[in-house]
Amino acid sequence: MAMHERVGSGLRGFDRVIDDMRLGDNVVWQVDSIDDYRNVAVPFAENALSEGRKLIYFRFGMHEPILSDSLFTRKYEIDSKKGFESFASEIRKLIEKEGLKALYVFDCLTDLLEFWHSDLMIANFFKVTCPFLYDLETIAYFAIMRNSHTYSTIAGIRETTQLLLDLYNVGGRRYIHPLKVWQRYSPTMFFPHLVEGDEASSITSSMEVAELFSSLDRGKDKLDHWQIMLGKAGDTLTKDKMAQEDIKRELMSTIIGGGQRMFDLCDRYFTLADILAVASREIGTGFIGGKSVGMLVARKILEKDAGEKFSRYLEPHDSFYLGSDIFYTYIVQNGWWSLRTRQKTKDGYFSLAPELKEKLLKGKFPSIIKEQFYQMLEYYGQSPIIVRSSSLQEDNFGNAFAGKYDSVFCANQGTPEERYEALEQAIRTVYASTMSDDALNYRLNRGLSESDEQMAILVQRVSGDYHGPNFYPHLAGVGNSTNLYVWDKDIDTTAGMLRMVFGLGTRAVERSVGDYAHVVCLDNPMRTPHIGYGDEKKFSQHYADVISIVENNLLTRNVDELVSGEIGTDRSLFASIDFRSEEYLKERGYSLKYRPIIMDFKKLLSETEFPSLMRNMLELISRVYEYPVDIEFTVNFTKDGRFKVNLVQCRPLQTRGLGTPVEMPKPGDCENCLIRSKGNFMGGNVRLPLDYTILVKTKEYLKLDEQGKYEVARTIGKLNESLKGYGVMLVGPGRWGTTTPTLGVPVHFTEIANMAVICEVSSAESGLMPELSFGSHFFQDLVETGIFYAAIFDGKSDVTYNPLLIMMKKNRLNNLIAGADHLSDVIHVAMTEGMEIFADIVSQTLVCR
């Protein structure tokens, strides 16, 4: 584009010095006072208006206005307290709205430190804003206060801007010293110039120049504003409590962020010393994110409110936090901010996400950040670590984001260079997961698609130890302070529940193929879900996830073999000998390398303090939260049976509650029921009308090849959209949402998110079986979305299931989804107006009729 049109500054002598300003110039003034900046901005604005140009004033500073009301065409007041992304995005939209060849005056950028507390983010703002202004052929005035920013911030601004100018006021005389004038040159351009009225004269005499500069305080490299603030906070530790509380809250607003409810919890439990301890382990600046905050505040509650009761059982943590500003800096400095801005629009939300995701996996980090990564890795040595997402909205009241973003285990073996590259790639992977389909759909469905989702990262030392070549904790799992899924009328829902596994907790938070976590009702830990005689082995844990020192990776091992080896403690805590299988194998002449076991955790639950400890921990945290909570934990045992619990995560458990009791149908009214069952449902007391019922037929589904099964899943997703707003019950074989089509229908959760009820039906002939996976990420999605869930164990004496009642009705599939008639033998969609589903917690009765 032609960029030669010249625009006056209002100071004719200065225009001659720099050979005029040109459309496209960004002009940065380093000043000692706002008055000095005003003295150059006002003539610029007056000249622009006199030439009939459009002059826009961006107002966001704490200082007095730069321009009076008569000196601009329009003024926009921007709230910098909302943070970098909101601020930069709003300004970009307004610049785009004003279009080509507008002229701009911005308030002093240094004032952004008041709320951002980061020099780096000011440089980032400049880097994303100035190229956009350049492309629109504008001229924009900016100011920064001299000696208030780091050299690296100034360097970033110098690299991006077209004009960088020092403005001095010495003894009442004004001097302009050009430091950078892009694509212009004269023999005297870069000398200081004395400005008198409209004129400017070069100071070329060595004596005069030396005299001028010797009177100026050039300053040394400044500490980052954040470091200065931390230093002042540290000094406050010796002062009175009120002074400490004030600066503590100021630091918290920058580190904690999040909603008011979580902020208030942190304010109640953290001291200034606690916040400074967190800050000392933060890399970069910005928020540490919801996952980090939840973990820290839960630990502080146990420490502060229970004293010695829990402290001797709690394993300490030594986590690091990668501030959310690193995420922004990574995007800005790799040149992707424009792409990110376009991706956040309605048109680009899904279409541009794959491109941004691919870029996020391949970017480079600034050297100053890389050095801090190295130091963190040196601290951990060769201990395995886990790099976990900790976005601003994650694990907060209202949005759990359970399983939506990645966590990456680093075995942390090999040379320092290899270990560092693995760490960097793990961080990139977490960043890229912000563009995953699950995350995008979750944000869209919860009205968060346009809000800031700042991705911080929590780096934790993996809890556990090496047992032979494998690293793992003895126990890991999730716990809920309220048991929302009960199968026995005697269960105390307020006592909470656990879902736990031997080894790493990955198998506790996901629905594992062919495997089952152990579920514990904490009011009676030996109570188990209804399973038939001989099913204990089938519905127990068969595999464990470990970190292999040999393979330098996360691996899955046979749990029988693992527990039969050296595990560093009493294996009978976790496993009982499977005498039935042992006898069966011996009778058939098999030679056994190790005795078969059942992972029933009987000794752990009946002879140790573990279940009562977990119940009390959950009860205390939930009471303080004034809300049900969901935790993740690990447990490690010594040879003499002592144990330590590591609380690695805590978040509010999103739930609608049990609901008020409903009047159930009388037994005589249930002769033609679609479903009648005892227990195995989740969602509280309900009476829900059903406008439609979608049935996936078991036999017909199993006849399909893998491609056909996936087509069924995608068609369910289309029905989910088509019937949005209706009361719909979805019934199908095995597990909804499995990644293995032989175990159920492989839908994504977003493809069933509009359903009122989902039912998983067992099929003894095919081996398809629901998994009562409360505590998993799937469970979290159901609870958050308010979907009622039931597992139907067809064939059991206390279960009635009559799918013919649905199949007798007209199949509406082809009316709802064009071109789906070839699946009408597999998917049956019936209008079921007048049908209702009833559930009662006390009697543990479920009826659909």
From TrEMBL:
Gene3D superfamilies: ATP-grasp fold, A domain. Residues 288-659 form the Pyruvate phosphate dikinase AMP/ATP-binding domain. Coiled coil: none annotated. It holds the Pfam family PPDK_N. SUPFAM superfamilies: Glutathione synthetase ATP-binding domain-like. This is Pyruvate phosphate dikinase AMP/ATP-binding domain-containing protein. The lineage of its organism: Bacteria, Bacillati, Bacillota, Clostridia, Eubacteriales.
